[in-house]
Write a structure and sequence with these properties.
mainly beta, 180 residues, 6-stranded parallel sheet, 39% strand, 5-stranded parallel sheet, single chain
Length: 180
């Protein structure tokens, strides 16, 4: 984590290194890397930017792929409390069970308290599986989801949502995206 020749092995380790109340930028190696989220990442009062420049020769981007536990009952992801996370120039892929069924109670990014969060996706490729991208839990705090210049596709028809807010208020801003 101290240089490009000594990187953290996981996104979780890099996020954990950002101090509470602090800011950090995590640079992902471009290709052909897939970063599996095979455990939960807790962001509490942190601002984290996860970014990569696409491979100039191929245009390839690293993929952050949400994984499921062994019995496919839990989808791992980011649990956020009073935090901000922004993804830039990467591919984000939400999980799908092996049978293709919905996992509506889980999402890649979850708000777990009564403090607001902000989520940004800038120039990303978003692949929606059977899991939601962002879920807003109950409570009165705000959630901001901003998606700009991204391409959104589905790996499973009509299951995962970009934002699942139930009956709770949320701020959802989108611009210059390509939709399925």
């Amino acid at each position: 984590g101290t240089s490009s020749s000594k990187p953290f092995r996981t996104i979780k380790a890099a996020c954990d290194a950002v101090p509470v109340g602090g800011h950090g930028t995590i640079y992902l190696a471009a290709t052909p890397y897939i970063y599996d989220l095979d455990g939960d990442i807790f962001l509490r009062n942190k601002t984290v930017y996860i970014r990569c420049e696409a491979n100039a020769a191929t245009g390839d981007r690293p993929t952050i792929r949400q994984k499921l536990n062994a019995d496919e009952s839990v989808a791992y992801g980011f649990f956020m409390q009073g935090s901000e996370v922004t993804f830039c120039y990467c591919t984000i892929e939400t999980a799908t069970r092996s049978d293709g069924s919905a996992i509506n109670t889980h999402s890649l990014i979850k708000r777990v308290d009564h403090m607001g969060i902000e989520v940004g996706l800038l120039f990303c490729d978003i692949i929606l599986g059977a899991t939601n991208l962002v879920t807003r839990s109950t409570g009165t705090a705000s959630i901001w989801l901003q998606i700009y210049g991204s391409t959104i596709t589905r790996s499973v028809p009509s299951l995962g949502y970009l934002l699942h807010a139930a009956s709770q208020p949320a701020i959802f801003g989108v611009s210059n995206n390509v939709l399925p």
